[in-house]
Specification:
Rossmann fold, Gyrase A, domain 2, binds arginine, 25 helices
């Protein structure tokens, strides 16, 4: 049962009898209380209601207490201070809810009474390029949301919209045609394709940088001249606050452009000084254009390029699946961009016919009042775009799965794309569907800049997993979990991958976060490692208890919770459902990590300090405490599993 929800439901009729337009916001003011001295839950709606009803908040609070039926739930409901309503739950009710949770395989969490169909679009890497740290976020957040929504009783369809039709294939095809090392390809095709991609990409970037440097330098000179004029015209001592701000902004711009120039020059030099790459830059002066042509030929069904694509795709997918397997993540569907290619031309004609899209400067665009720039669905040269495929994808998803909601778990840098896409959809009559961009921020290095390797390239996802697991092995070794090496290895895999996932999920997804192995594997703090350790410790207590657990669980033993630390833990266990409802409301898995760490694990550790379990004063109390331990372990395990994180019995 979701206690908070139940209390709100009790208040609802009483509020509905009042002359209010919407009781929703007042119901939201019923919350768990922050301090046990003020009861378990608090209703803080009397103060704002007093403004509407022109009555004192104390009177309103007293009236609400008088008219809300709470006796079976609360042992105390009282007005405090300026009109707070403090609610204290009945301990016997808590005990019976805990008993239900013990016997339930879902800890007594009810399924939603309004099940929806969700399509979740997440992970979606561009294949045949190595996956990097940025892909962790979408993959891990999307997977957790899928698991939590499913657990709550929604129908969830996961669809990995991989980028399997983009310019990276032009690069690989170009590389294959010009730079292939046959023996290497035979030996390890994936590694060779990845090398080809990187080599071509570096050359393309090189030419791009060469073009950019003079432009950037020009911009730098302009900005510096602007600063000079500004300083001449406004004497330093007389500058107003806004002028000082303006100067600061200018200086920041100069600093950024300078950094860009330096970086571009550095990259250019690195390629030129490289004995293999250096000569290639002159031998392939038109590589940018040629790569685009290879992609265009693939899209135009050129036989050779299509054959190569068919040859590369299974390799790229196998590589991808290897990583998903390691992350223990799977999808219901993997319908990549290529799946929609046949549908793009008819879609664009249809949009034109219906007047939704129009030609502008030779391109086909969808205009909207909300955006200055239109969404282009077909370029001048006839090529379709990312947005075109996304439109076709929505059409397909609506037609095939009839979802109520589609969630896109994608980097916040694509916000404009999704805003334009969603606004375009309002013009179609494809049926009602709610589209949500579930944005997330950037993974930063300890220097506060986007996470890169020392040489400045992005960090491969696999090397991250390896390093996390390597360090986790040290943690496991220190704790001397198992003497057996292979057991230790699998423990390290669970701890390492868990740490990585949890570090990501415990952030408010919209913020950037700093990637740190030390922090994510800390044995104390808000980490998976800490929670896994808490779990393993409880399991070890239960083993030592030497008791028939299933008989005890099925017995009529009442968890009395006479000690306040027991009661606090009991309540924390029961609040699992509330944490899941919070995730459901705004698609932020960090509500669940917060609950597991701040409420459940902390209450447990307080309980464990205060209340001896195995050496409890009586055998009755011992049994009750063992049951509290059992429930805590079960909640930790279920909660972590909904985040895609495993536990170990020993660590
Ligand atoms: N492949 C894209 C990228 O790596 C992400 C795709 C997200 N999903 C979508 N339907 N647009 O940036």
């Amino acid at each position: 049962m979701n206690i908070l929800h139940a209390i709100r439901q009790r208040f609802r009729p009483a509020l509905e009898r009042l002359p209010l337009d919407d009781v929703g916001p007042f119901l939201e003011m019923i919350k768990p209380s922050q301090d046990p001295r003020f009861g378990d839950y608090q209703a803080n709606c009397a103060m704002p209601l007093s403004k509407v009803l022109k009555q004192s908040p104390q009177e309103i609070a007293a009236m609400l207490i008088g008219s809300v039926e709470l006796d079976d739930l609360c042992e105390k409901s009282e007005v405090a201070g300026p009109g707070f309503i403090n609610l204290t739950l009945r301990t016997d009710r808590l005990a019976s809810l805990l008993h239900e949770a013990l016997l339930s395989d879902r800890l007594g969490v009810e399924q939603t009474c309004r099940p929806l169909t969700f399509v979740i679009d997440y992970s979606a890497p561009n294949v045949a390029k190595p996956m990097h740290v940025g892909h962790i976020r979408s993959t891990v957040i999307g997977d957790a949301l899928a698991k939590i929504l499913r657990f709550l009783g929604h129908q969830v369809i996961t669809d990995n919209h991989i980028g399997d039709w983009g310019t990276q294939f032009g690069m690989i095809i170009y590389g294959y045609k010009h730079f292939l090392q046959k023996a290497a390809y035979q030996e390890n095709p994936v590694a060779e394709l990845s090398r080809l991609y990187q080599q071509v990409n570096r050359l393309v970037q090189h030419h791009r940088y060469l073009r950019q440097i003079p432009e950037l330098q020009k911009r730098q000179t302009e900005l510096e001249a602007e600063r000079e004029t500004f300083c001449k015209e406004t004497a330093e001592a007389e500058r107003s606050k806004s002028q000082r701000k303006q100067l600061k902004r200018l200086e920041n711009q100069i600093r950024d452009v300078r950094a860009e120039v330096e970086n571009a020059e550095l990259q250019v030099r690195a390629v030129q000084d490289d004995p293999t790459m250096g000569p290639l830059t002159a031998e392939h002066p038109h590589i940018e254009r040629d790569v685009l042509q290879e992609t265009a030929k693939l899209h135009a069904a050129d036989r050779k390029n299509r054959e190569l694509w068919d040859q590369f795709m299974p390799l790229a997918l196998a590589e991808l699946n290897r990583i998903y397997q390691r992350l223990d993540i799977s999808f219901d569907h993997t319908l990549g961009e290529s799946f929609y290619q046949e549908q793009l031309a008819p879609l664009v004609s249809d949009l034109k016919e219906r007047g939704i899209a129009e030609e502008s400067d030779g391109a086909v665009c969808i205009f909207s009042d909300d955006h200055d720039v239109p969404m282009i669905v077909q370029k001048k040269d006839g090529a379709f775009l990312y947005a075109t495929t996304d439109l076709a994808t929505i059409n397909y998803r609506i037609g095939t799965w009839h979802p109520d909601v589609i969630l896109y778990v994608v980097d916040h840098r694509q916000s404009l794309h999704f805003e334009q896409l969603f606004s375009a959809i309002t013009k179609m009559d494809w049926g009602p569907v709610k589209l949500c961009h579930i944005k997330f921020g950037t993974v930063l290095g300890e220097d506060g800049r986007p996470f890169k390797t020392r040489s400045g390239s992005t960090v491969g996802l696999e090397s991250l997993l390896d390093e996390a697991v390597r360090r986790a092995a040290l943690v496991a070794e220190e704790n001397n979990a198992e003497s057996d090496e292979s057991a230790n290895r699998s423990i390290a895999e669970v701890i390492g991958i868990g740490a990585l996932k949890y570090a990501d999920l415990s952030q408010n997804r919209e913020s950037d976060y700093v990637f740190s192995y030390d922090k994510m594997l800390a044995l104390n703090g808000n980490t998976a490692t800490y929670l896994q350790y808490a779990y393993a410790r409880i399991r070890s207590i239960l083993r030592k208890a030497d008791i028939d657990l299933s008989a005890l669980q099925n017995s009529q033993t009442v968890i009395g919770m006479e000690h306040s630390a027991e009661r606090q833990l009991g309540l924390a266990i029961l609040r699992f459902a509330e944490a899941l409802t919070l995730v459901e409301a705004d698609y932020r898995p960090n509500h669940l990590t917060h609950y597991l760490f701040e409420e459940l694990a902390k209450s447990f550790s307080h309980f464990f300090e205060q209340c001896p379990v195995l050496k409890a004063e009586t055998s009755d109390v011992r049994e009750q405490r063992i049951l509290l331990c059992t429930l805590t372990a079960k909640t930790l395990k279920t909660g972590l599993s909904l985040l895609g994180i495993d536990v170990v019995e020993k660590m």
